[in-house]
Specification:
Rossmann fold; 3-stranded parallel sheet; 12 helices; alpha/beta; single chain; 44% helix; elongated
């Protein structure tokens, strides 16, 4: 798990996986044993726990997120891996192709790149006065660059000037946001990378301090005080991952199971944050929301 052990969102995802696995006939402590590690998207922990789990020689490993999957694949040999919430499993080299993964790894991708264009649309809908958008991404992550390119392609039609802010660490993130906030009518878009989770408190603080409307790919950012998010239902991906684990435990090979895209997306809006930013959320947007925090 790429969350801390006390992370409510991570616990809910794991519970969804275990419940579906039980529905398929697998009972932890009965006919299956489940060992769990909570790495919190910290590289040292990811490496340590990946090695620990591989040493146990399990029949299959569930990996949450790109960092966890990469560290597990590096040391797993031929042990089957099912991943959840990986942005671009082909460019990262986790699989040969989406339809024919090959090797020992398959799973569920976070979303298709076209989704990132909707973040800019959402920013304009919830904050119409925004004419400048900073996209926060890690330039070392290929999928982040693809997300940025998709957002750039939509910018002109929406009348928004788009720029990039690197967020390889907290200091770089803060410097970039502080500099961007010096000019008016700006908003933020966060791409999908581990830094968003690792620096969530700083991110929420900066957006609040500089009165910047921000769109996030993860719902837990809105629960933590962020304005709005649009992205896949990760708990649903964990439920679907249980079905792949079931098939592997029954003898199928991960390389023969196609990588699947999300089937359910969620829109979350925090009205308290909107009010603090002086924004009136359109009723049409509220009507589409899966969850509204008041």
């Amino acid at each position: 798990m790429n969350r801390a052990v006390d992370d409510a969102d991570g616990q809910a995802r794991l519970a969804a996986f275990q419940k579906r696995l039980q529905q398929l006939g697998w009972n932890d402590g009965g006919n299956v044993r489940i060992d769990t590690r909570w790495a919190a998207d910290e590289l040292d922990r990811e490496r340590k726990y990946a090695a620990e789990l591989v040493t146990l020689a399990p029949d299959v490993i569930l990996a949450s997120g790109t960092l966890s999957t990469g560290e597990l694949q590096r040391v797993s040999g031929n042990l089957p891996i099912v991943f959840v919430a990986v942005t671009d499993p082909v460019s990262t080299g986790f699989v040969d192709s989406l339809s024919h993964p090959g090797h020992n790894t398959t799973g569920f991708m976070l979303y298709e790149f076209s989704l990132s264009g909707k973040w800019l649309e959402l920013l304009k809908q919830i904050a119409p006065n925004v004419n400048r958008a900073a996209v926060l991404r890690d330039p070392a992550i290929a999928s982040n660059m693809a997300e940025f390119a998709t957002i750039q392609a939509m910018a002109q039609s929406l009348g928004v000037e788009v720029s990039a802010i690197s967020m390889r660490d907290a200091e770089e993130l803060e410097r970039g946001v502080v500099s961007f906030a010096r000019s008016p009518n700006g908003g933020l878009i966060f791409t999908t990378n581990a830094s968003v989770s690792a620096h969530r408190d700083l991110i929420i603080k900066l957006a609040d301090q500089y009165k910047l409307p921000a769109v996030y790919p993860y719902g837990y950012m809105v629960s933590s005080g962020g304005l709005v998010s649009y992205g896949p239902d990760i708990a649903e991906q964990f439920r679907r991952a249980a079905e792949y684990v079931d098939r592997i435990l029954k003898g199928e090979k991960p390389g023969d199971l196609p990588v699947q895209a999300p089937t359910k997306y969620q829109l979350l809006i925090n009205l308290k944050t909107a009010k603090a930013l002086g924004l009136t959320v359109p009723q049409s947007l509220l009507a589409r929301a899966d969850e509204v925090i008041e």
